[in-house]
Amino acid sequence: MQFELTDEFIEQIEQYIANNDGDALKGLLDDFHFADVAELLQELNHEEATYLVKLLDSEITSEALMELDEDFRERILDNLSPSEIADELDEMDTDDAADIIAELDDDIQKQVIDHIEDEEHAADIVDLLRYDEDTAGGLMAKELVRVKETWTVAGCVREMRRQAENVTRVHSIYVTDKHGKLKGRLSLKDLLTAPERAHISDIYIPKVDYVNVHTEAEEVARIMQKYDLEAIPVVDDDGILVGRVTIDDIVDFIREEAEKDYQMAAGISQDVEADDGIFKQTRARLPWLLIGMFGGLGAASIITGFQEMMSTFPKIIIFVPLIQATAGNVGVQSSAIVVQGLANDSLKGNLFARLLKESSLALVNGIAIALVVLIISHFVFFTTYLESISIGIAIITVIVLAALIGTFIPILLDKRGIDPAVATGPFITTSNDIFGILTYFLIAKLILGF
Amino acid sequence: MQFELTDEFIEQIEQYIANNDGDALKGLLDDFHFADVAELLQELNHEEATYLVKLLDSEITSEALMELDEDFRERILDNLSPSEIADELDEMDTDDAADIIAELDDDIQKQVIDHIEDEEHAADIVDLLRYDEDTAGGLMAKELVRVKETWTVAGCVREMRRQAENVTRVHSIYVTDKHGKLKGRLSLKDLLTAPERAHISDIYIPKVDYVNVHTEAEEVARIMQKYDLEAIPVVDDDGILVGRVTIDDIVDFIREEAEKDYQMAAGISQDVEADDGIFKQTRARLPWLLIGMFGGLGAASIITGFQEMMSTFPKIIIFVPLIQATAGNVGVQSSAIVVQGLANDSLKGNLFARLLKESSLALVNGIAIALVVLIISHFVFFTTYLESISIGIAIITVIVLAALIGTFIPILLDKRGIDPAVATGPFITTSNDIFGILTYFLIAKLILGF
After folding, report:
1. What are phi and psi of A128, to 5 degrees?
2. Would you call B227 and A164 a contact, using CB atoms and an 8 Å cutoff?
3. A258, A322, A360 member nearest B258 (Cβ)
4. Chain B nearest C-alpha distance from A150 (Å)
5. CB contact (8 A) between residue B33 and residue A227
6. Side-chain half-sphere CA neighbours of B148 within 13 A
7. Helix H segments across B104-152?
């Protein structure tokens, strides 16, 4: 079942495109899974990709388009006429279609919508455009199977056969009252095992998880994960059933969020990928490097401030990189643990207990590292006893401080409603660099007394 | 629908447990969702939690147990008799039950299995224990709905009513030949809309994605995500259908993998959480701090080697923290982009093109930062022209080098079959620290000529 896109295959496709041999291409690709078509499109340039999108059945290309990188998709859509785009949207679920429309320029949006054949489909798409993309409304699709509580099982099956045509996957059947208010749910399994004459009101499950159109996407993801849901109905402020969010949208959302946090920790501020252009990448990376730079300049000021020490105790300066690296590493470790705990909702106990625990942990690590450094500095770098002791005590103090800062800042940001993930990466490293070096010099001064 | 666990509620539960008031507890908790029960259990100590697990219906507690942290679950299971554990496993899906059994001590495993009432269920669990937990066999459940291609739709519906009893969610109906070989699939929707007299062989979809029991979990996740599958059948080496993996297991797997990569980037080597004990956390964190420490000692040697410079050009040393921070930050950015690209399979083009691109990007960032530092060093720190120019050129060189190292190492590791994520975080920071400082001094020496 493994699909492997070989270079030879891609070359052959490119040859056919160059020869404008549509029949050969259709013969080759018509049986392809949309995800494989998407993989192929990504390997072509955007003119070749556009050629294939125009050529192949829009039942396949519409789904393949959804799998492409946004930038690449945009370049293909730029080459399609409004009516060609509308053909693709006609085949898409409303949530995907709305996402595509939202990416288009305002003037083209209207033209595309006017070209969509199925008027109900078009109206549903327009309706979805109202919602913020990071809410349940922005994630939901209008396609779902709904039955009224007054129906019989037999009538329900008849009605469902009609509705199911438009729904790719029937997860749950939602039960509403005559006004469309969500009352409960019914699984296909329940329907299959119920007597034909029973009324829906007798067999449906009145307990149903749901979210409001304005519920934040993150909360939707949390609920669906916690309760192991594969689909969740979405209601408006009056309790009317208006759509459903399915697990595949949430899987993408979870992956994107994890990637964003990961990038933030690495000092990359936008959602960039390895293949994005240099300008976009610079915009995402340079700001963090500048923060690091100002940290470095701050450290330069501190060293300048302790200049006399450099002449009296020249050995002290050589351990600055060690102090800096350790402070940075400890800070990143502590903040990552806290940020992940916050994201998971698994952080228990109060702030004080948490800080106490991190300090004890830091103390254990600090003493271990201080002992090694103390011995090596004395026997390898020939520092005096007092110098070695200063370095050892400074390392322990810096590690404990770095752990406290790394723990405290994300919790503080979270309490103020700011994404704590910004506090990982260069931000925490930089502040710990400065605090670490300052602490180191202060302790050395205290002990060596210059 | 929001469930909120208040402190008052927890206190009340603890009070009832202290009073051994089982009836009150049952009255309060019997309607609870298992995920909410799990949340409550996490807030109690393990003795209270054990009390509740013994008290409440194992239909609920079995699922709640699966949601708990492994450590906490283990402590509860330690307090249960083999027959009590077997009662819980009786209610679980085979994949979950096998995971629990695998966590138990060898001598208890056999006792628990002997106490499982449903012998077929017990045999299925034992069978699953054979597979490595990071393979499709380790993720799959035995529960699925299978029909033979020779059956009629009506017969199929009858048979399915029987099978569906044991299956929590019917995603797809799998079609096999008379020997049990996987032939295709059928959706509930198809079954619902097919004529009653049709044969399965006429309506089933012969194209079906599947994986082998030995397929790696990562590959299963990739396939399910790529093809938007909610369940995938698993076959043995003879093509016999033996189980299925469902998307909820994959969601957990994806989240865990993302967390692992994130932790690796932060210099934490095991799967630890904020609430794990100090010893476990030290084991996960100290090794990375030691790597950073040796890097710092390496930097100390380099500075010692350039000691004459410290007396002739004392200004040069004060920019070491800046060089170090910048080298570290650039390296982490580059490696994070590459690691993510590798994880996503979105990395295109050959190694040379990739390195060329990262160098150009680094050059742009490097020139920007070098200009700022050059001006500030000259006008704020009063470096000479030559010193300022040395610093500027060193920064550009260090940034380009750091980007190249950050790009090259993960790709190299990946080619050798090592998880490239180890190359993010402290590892890349440390090597860049050393390279960066060495490069800085060498360039300064070249230009200032001491």
Report:
1. -65, -25
2. no
3. A258
4. 21
5. yes
6. 8
7. 106-115, 119-128, 136-139
Helix (H, G, I), strand (E, B) or coil at A396: helix
Residues of B in contact with A245 (CB under 8 A): none
DSSP 3-state assignment of B245? strand
Q: Distance between CA atoms of B360 and A116, rounded to whole angstroms?
A: 44
List average pLDDT for each run of 10 residues in chain B, which is 450 residues long.
77 92 89 89 90 91 88 89 92 91 89 91 92 91 87 81 67 87 84 79 87 92 85 94 88 77 76 76 85 89 84 85 90 85 72 85 92 90 88 94 90 84 78 91 86
- Whole-angstrom CA distances from A415 to A218, A409, A410, A420, B109 are 17, 10, 9, 9, 45
A105, A131, A157 — which closes off a domain? A131
Q: Let me know whether A295 and A245 are in one domain.
A: no
For residues B298 and B421, membership in a common domain is answered with yes
Across the interface, of A251, A292, A329, the residue whose CB is closest to B326 is A292
Residue whose tokens read 């044991």: B166
Cα gap A3→A161, rounded to integer Å:
34
From the CA of A277, how many Å to the nearest CA of chain B?
A: 9
Q: Which residue, B41, B31, B30, is CA-closest to B5?
A: B41
Show Cβ contacts of residue A372 under 8 Å, excluding neighbours closer than 6 positions.
B290, B293
Whether A362 and A418 share a structural domain: yes
Closest residue, chain A, to B338 (C-alpha): A274
Domains in chain A: how many in total?
3
Are A150 and A126 in a shared domain? no
Q: How many helices (H) and strands (E) does chain A have?
A: 23, 6
Whether residue B126 is found in the same domain as residue B201: no
Contact yes or no for A322 and B296 at CB 8 A: yes
CA neighbor of A102 nearest in space, from A112, A90, A93: A112
Q: Is residue A117 part of a domain?
A: yes
CATH number of the structural domain spanning residue B198: 3.10.580.10
Owner of token pair 């030691």: B290
Nearest CA in chain B to A303: B318
Q: Encode pLDDT of A277-319 as tens digits.
A: 788 888 888 888 888 888 889 988 898 888 887 778 888 888 9
- Whether residue B370 sits in one domain with residue B314: yes
Q: Tokens for A135?
A: 């809410």
B340 contacts A263? CB cut-off 8 A: yes
DSSP H or E segment with residue B262: helix B247-265
CA B188, B189, B190, B195 torsion-angle sign: positive
**Averaged pLDDT for residues A76-102:** 91
Cβ distance B278 to A248 less than 8 Å, yes or no, reads no
* Of residues B290, B325, B330, nearest to A433 (C-beta): B325
- Give per-residue burial for A307-346: e unless 16+ CB within 10 Å, then b: eebbeebebbbbbbbbbbbbbbbbbbbbbbbbbbbbbeee
SS3 A311: helix
Q: Which residues of B touch A156 (CB under 8 A)?
A: none
Residue that terminates a domain, selected from A104, A131, A158: A131
Q: What is the CATH number of the domain that holds B417?
A: 1.10.357.20
**CB spacing of B255 vs A251 below 8 angstroms:** no
Packing angle of the helix pair B119-128, B94-103 (nearest 10 deg)? 60
Here the CATH number for the domain that contains residue B24 is 1.25.60.10
Q: Residues B180, B125: one domain?
A: no
Specify the 3-state DSSP secondary structure of B222: helix
Which residues from B are below 8 Å from A361, CB to CB? 278, 281-282, 285
Structure tokens at A292: 């690091």
Give the β-pairing of A241-246 and A231-235: antiparallel
CB distance A226 to A344 below 8 Å: no
Of the candidates A259, A286, A426, which has its C-beta nearest B365's C-beta?
A286
